[in-house]
Specification:
Layout lengths: L20 E9 L8 E10 L4 E8 L9 H4 L3 H5 L4 H12 L3 E4 L2 H14 L8 E4 H8 L8 H7 L10 H22 L5 E3 L3 E2 L9 E2 L2 E2 L2 E2 L35 E5 L6 H10 L3 E3 L8 E4 L7 H9 L3 E2 L1 H7 L7
Parallel strand pairs: 1-4, 4-5, 11-12, 11-13, 13-14
Antiparallel strand pairs: 1-2, 2-3, 5-6, 7-8, 9-10
Length: about 325
């Protein structure tokens, strides 16, 4: 079903709390892991009502193998003469500054951007992000799945070069505009999330970690380390059973993680514990939920989840569910 692209909230009804500008972003990368690099980036700057102001695109030399060329189409020869990230960092920052970062599965794009700035010993000027997957769920859009092409098809937006950062950002900007206007019309609160800064560690070649600036270094821990190893306290709530799609998480649920995560795994687990969930290191019949960005992987946890009928969701959906966990 195509959404009416002319639908818009009247000037008088536009929510005063909505942001004053957006940066719709797409990055292509060498892979999905924490040490992977950005190889191209695109930004569409939008005003408060989603109208395009300008756009920008660049390739980036990742100083390593470009990864899945069959997906993004950027070869080593194409990237060899491209600028390094520190050389485009200032221009990129100018296009993000003072705006809400909008992306499809925004936690991934934000994490990759923040890590690149951390490597360059800088901080990305982004304080909030908005995931268009989360917004589609808030609006109750009847999508068959949460892929970008499904969102584009719903709004009648034609993709020309899938997995090309500039075209993906254009498609997302065109789909975000009617989504934003529908949210304003219906008084929907935008699912804005905080963007925590990343800091590069000086010791051991460790990947950047998420954390707030503190007196003893990033995250309040001594420089050159992340967190002291510790045993997590036992979850104080009984296990209420399995997660049911469409319903909130409940305190006490046993949550397992599998595969790479965009947010640092330890931080993601901490957030789950703080919400009252039980983080399980293995998967059993008692596990309430498995979180993975690759449900088709052959990891032992994914295989067991299939055998036991354990619900499986991705990291972006889990992040949204963490915002409103039902008390025990």
């Amino acid at each position: 079903m195509l959404e009416d692209l002319t639908t818009a909230a009247s000037p008088a009804s536009w929510p005063a709390a909505y942001p004053q500008g957006y940066a719709v972003v797409d990055v292509e990368t060498t892979g999905l892991a924490r040490d992977d690099r950005i190889i191209s980036a695109a930004v569409y700057r939008l005003d408060a009502r989603g109208e395009v102001e300008d756009h920008w695109y660049t390739m980036v030399n990742p100083e390593r193998d470009p990864g899945p060329v069959w997906i993004h189409g950027l070869t080593d020869d194409m990237l060899r003469s491209a600028p390094l990230f520190p050389e485009i960092a200032e221009e990129f920052a100018a296009r993000l500054d003072g705006r809400v970062l909008v992306a499809h599965n925004a936690v991934f794009d934000w994490s990759m951007i923040a890590r690149e700035y951390a490597r360059a010993r800088r901080e990305a000027p982004v304080r909030q992000r908005l995931c268009t997957i989360a917004l589609a769920k808030e609006l109750g859009l009847p999508l068959p799945n949460h892929k970008l092409e499904s969102l584009a098809a719903h709004f009648g937006v034609v993709q020309q070069r899938a997995h090309h950062a500039l075209d993906d950002a254009r498609v997302l900007a065109e789909a975000f505009r009617p989504s934003l206007r529908a949210a304003a019309r219906d008084g929907v609160r935008l699912p804005l999330l905080e963007c925590l800064p990343l800091k590069e560690w000086s010791g051991g070649g460790a990947a950047p970690r998420i954390g707030r600036q503190g007196a003893h270094g990033s995250g309040g821990y001594p420089s050159g380390s992340w967190r002291p190893s510790r045993k997590r306290p036992a979850c104080p709530y009984p296990n209420p059973g399995r997660y049911e799609s469409g319903k909130p998480l409940k305190q006490g649920m046993r949550v397992a993680f599998s595969g790479d995560t965009s947010v640092d795994r330890e931080l993601l687990e901490d957030r789950a514990v703080e919400a009252g969930l039980h983080v399980a290191t293995s998967l059993s019949r008692l596990t309430s939920l498995l979180v993975t960005n690759d449900p088709e992987a052959g990891t032992s946890k994914v295989v067991k989840a299939r055998q036991f009928g354990t619900p499986v969701i991705d990291e972006a959906a889990f992040g949204q569910l963490l915002r409103d966990v039902e008390p025990a």
